[in-house]
Amino acid sequence: MWNARYDRPDYLFGRDPAAFLVAQAGHIPDASRVLVVADGEGRNSVHLAGLGHEVTAFDAAPNAVDKARKLAAEKGVAVDFHEADIFAWDWAAAPVDAVVAIFIQFMGPGPRAEVFAGLDAALKPGGVLLLHGYAPRQVGYGTGGPPAEANMYELEMLRAAFPGYAVLHAADYDAEIDEGPGHSGRSGLIDFVARKPG
């Protein structure tokens, strides 16, 4: 499905990083090792590499990864891109200083719990998680994301999913976004930035 969605000459979610990442990337210490999860066409990983981080990113869609490599080359940055399924990624293989997961809401609560456990496993003690997505009301807006409220985030659910984390920033808000044809218009958004204990 995703390979077909990315099979287009333009960038489905645009070439610029998510506004959330631009606003919250300062929580990531300088020159960090960062993992960007299900990064699609590379807009967020390329931005982080441009800030001086050592970035690894993966996505399951091969044509998205190809476009991500092209974007990185155009921007003159290096990102370690991988074609990989989110459920097959070896989270604990090389723990990182920060994990970035933006709009990864293509899964319901059961698989999501597995992935959230992976995000935790990927982080070093004291590492920072930057998680961004849609609130349940987004389904009614219809401006991006799956038509399934169960896939969406609520702040209390995220706090419960990452117990012991020190919350650095949390917000539930509406905003007009323009992130390519895939995300455009009034959107119900959730920000969650938190530091792993240890």
UniProtKB/TrEMBL annotation:
It is an enzyme of class 2 (transferase). It holds the Pfam family Methyltransf_25. One of its GO terms (biological process) is methylation. Its EC number is 2.1.1.-. Keywords: Methyltransferase, Transferase. GO terms for molecular function: methyltransferase activity. Residues 34-127 form the Methyltransferase domain. InterPro entries: Methyltransf_25 (IPR041698), SAM-dependent_MTases_sf (IPR029063). The keyword Methyltransferase applies. It comes from the Bacteria. PANTHER family: PUTATIVE (AFU_ORTHOLOGUE AFUA_2G14390)-RELATED, TRANS-ACONITATE 2-METHYLTRANSFERASE-RELATED. This is Methyltransferase type 11. The lineage of its organism: Bacteria, Pseudomonadati, Pseudomonadota, Alphaproteobacteria, Rhodobacterales.
